[in-house]
Design brief:
alpha+beta, three-stranded mixed beta sheet, 19% helix, 1 helix, elongated
């Protein structure tokens, strides 16, 4: 995994993924990606302590060019995937 980079207001650019098919599971996939990345970033920081460990804010982007219509922007939420 390549090291992440931080831009602007402590924004962590995690992943820009290109797809030609619609995938409603992207929030879950991004959760897996960011968890692995945070493990790498925090590998030497004590997380079992009374002090808060600051982490950069992730930003996830999917670029889509498939045949199925999709609006120019669409927000996919991990919370929509929970079986409630």
């Amino acid at each position: 995994m390549h090291p992440p980079f931080v831009i602007g207001d402590n924004k962590l650019v995690v992943l820009v993924e290109h797809q030609s098919t619609v995938n409603p599971n992207m929030p879950l996939r991004f959760l897996e990606y960011i968890a692995r990345l945070y493990e790498t970033i925090l590998s030497e920081k004590p997380i079992y302590t009374t002090r808060i460990v600051e982490i950069p804010t992730p930003e996830f982007i999917v670029l889509y060019n498939g045949a199925t219509y999709m609006p120019d922007e669409k927000i996919l939420k991990l919370s929509d995937m929970f079986n409630v």
